[in-house]
Amino acid sequence: MNQSIISLREKLDATLNTVSTISELENIKVEYLGKKGSVTALLKNMGSLSPEERKSFGSEVNALKNYVEQAISEKTAILQALELQKELDAVEDFDVSVPPVLEHGSYHPITLVQRKCEEVFRTMGFVVEDYSEIVTDYECFESLNIPPFHPARDMQDTYYLDNGQLLKTQTSAAQNAIYKKYRDALINEGKPIKAVFPGRCFRNEATDACHENTFFQMEGVMVGKDISIANLIYSMKTMLSEVFENYDLKVRLRPGFFPFVEPGFELDISCQICGGEGCPSCKHSGWLELCPCGMIHPNVLKEGGIDPDEYTGFAFGLGLTRLVMMKYGVKDIRDLNSGSLTAMSQFIEDK
Ligand code: DAH
Which residues span the domain enclosing 220? Predict the structure, then answer.
């Protein structure tokens, strides 16, 4: 074997015996195998040899290269094991019976309130449906009695995709699909449609403490024979009493306009801060505006394949984000989407 190869091997063996850290090993690796390393230099010199010498020397250098690689990787494994052992020795006094001091994650206040609402509606026989955040113009507007150029569109500018679809501005965008999904059971089996569908909505709006471009709503519909405003009031009152855990909670309806309901209402609840006596939160009126709703417009039912002469229904669009702000006293809507654990952990109920 070539003398220079033998002495490189011996030198490597000797150095590896004295190495005690991974970073030293890294340096040795560079010293031998790096661009300017000694093994690399041998390979470079091969050009000056005769073809026969080159063949035998080449295979010796390759064997050396493999030897160096293997020796370094074996040593790495030994050092890693030693380092792990050192760490383990350092926690020798570790007591497995001491509870860990880990920070636990928790649900976002919107998730908590959404789940509570879903639970209450389920007990009243509603199904909970999920729906896409990207919808068509037909779903978000036209099927809801909002034709192109209707002024109601001005208040709901949103983000449009290149293919003409849009980020939904309201959970009402799922109404048409829900009617189509359940109308056969309604018409053939007489089963009323009872569904809630929570979702994230988007509007192209400047943000401030009360407005966000991204927020959550929960839409609900009930369609059947003789469904009336009484059903609407009962359902909303039951749900809100449970969410606020206040069974004396009062609701009232005021007229409101939305193209997809007739008549349309704004549903107010008695102020949960002053109990209805009047305070700054309710602008001294004793009432808080909470949920727009109404009796589903005949055109909307027709568009969903349901005969408005035979069936009636109510719909509501509960602002979940708003409900959360009221329930937990959140003053700035932007905190809810901030991802700030400090801001959010104040409102956590269920860890
Ligand atoms: N989708 C309406 C909005 O976001 C809210 C709404 C109003 C929903 C009345 C309804 C309703 O279902 O009946 O402004």
Answer: 109-350
Q: Is residue 116 part of a domain?
A: yes
- Tell me: do 115 and 62 sit in the same domain: no
Dist. CA 179 → ligand 1 center (Å): 16
Say whether both 81 and 127 belong to one domain: no
What is the tens place of the pLDDT at every residue in 214-225? Answer: 999 999 999 999
How many whole angstroms from 173 Cα to the centroid of ligand 1? 10
Calculate how far, in angstroms, residue 54's C-alpha sits from the geometric centre of ligand 1. 84
Is the residue at 102 inside a domain? Answer: no
Compute the CA torsion angle 33, 37, 41, 43 (nearest 10 deg): 0
Longest CA–CA span in the chain (Å) reads 105
Which residues form ligand 1's pocket by a CB distance below 6 Å? 170, 172, 219, 258, 261, 264, 292-294, 315-317
51: Cβ contacts below 8 Å, ≥ 6 apart: none
Q: Whose CA is nearest to atom 8 of ligand 1?
A: 317
Q: With a threshold of 0.85, does the pTM exceed it?
A: no
For ligand 1, atom 4, name the residue with the nearest CA.
Answer: 170
Give, in degrees to the nearest 5, the angle at Cα 298 between 296 and 301: 75
On whether both 234 and 328 belong to a single domain, the answer is yes
pLDDT score at 351: 42
For the CA of 169, the nearest atom of ligand 1: 4
